[in-house]
Amino acid sequence: MPRVSFYQIILAAVAIAFMYTGLVKFIRKEKKQTIIKLLATIFIWGSVLLFAIFPRLPHIVSRDLGFGENLNTLIFVGFVVVLMIIFKLLTIIERLERDISEIVRKEALKKLSNGTTE
Predict the structure, then answer these.
(1) Per-domain residue ranges for the chain?
(2) Residue 109 contacts by C-beta under 8 Å, 6 or more apart in sequence?
(3) b/e map 17-36, b = 16+ CB within 10 Å
(4) Can you tell me the mean pLDDT for 47-60?
(5) Helices (H) and strands (E) in the chain, counts
(6) pLDDT above 70 for 72
(7) How many CA atoms lie less than 13 Å away from 111 in the CB half-sphere?
(8) Is 15 exposed, middle or buried, given 0-12, 13-18 or 19+ CB atoms closer than 10 A?
(9) Distance from chain centroid for Cα 57
(10) Cβ contacts of residue 111 below 8 Å, gap of 6+?
C-alpha cells in the first residue's frame, strides 16, 4: 500500500470542504451561488481531490501528453491559483453589481417619491 503524506490528506480535506461549501450554498439558494459556479467548483476541487488521492495521475497524464515530469507540479499549482483568483474576482464583481443595482433603485425611488423626473 502506498504511503499517504500529510499534504495529501490536507489537500484532500480542503478540496472536500470547498466542494461541500459550494454544494451547501447552492442548496440554500444563496444569491452568489449559481449552477455554473457550482459545476466549476466541483470540477476544479474534484480535480484537486483526484490529484491528491492519486498523486501519480498528473505525472502519467503529463507524460502521455508529452510535457515531461517536472512541469506537472508547476502547471497544477498555477492552475489552482489562477482559478481561485478568478473565482474571488467573480464574487467581488457580482457583489459590486448587486450593490450598484440597489443604489440605483433607491435613488430612483427617492426621485419618484419627491416628484422629480430628472
Answers:
(1) 6-114
(2) none
(3) ebbeebeebbeeeeeebeee
(4) 82
(5) 4, 0
(6) no
(7) 9
(8) buried
(9) 22
(10) 117, 118
**At a CB cut-off of 8 Å and minimum separation 6, what does 12 contact?**
49, 52, 53
* pLDDT tens-digit readout, 88-112: 888 888 889 989 999 999 998 888 8
Whether pLDDT at 67 is above 70: no
Is residue 32 within 8 A of residue 46, CB to CB? The reply is: no
**Total residue count of the chain as it appears in this document:** 118
Cα 10 versus chain centre, distance: 18
Share of the chain above pLDDT 90, in %: 12
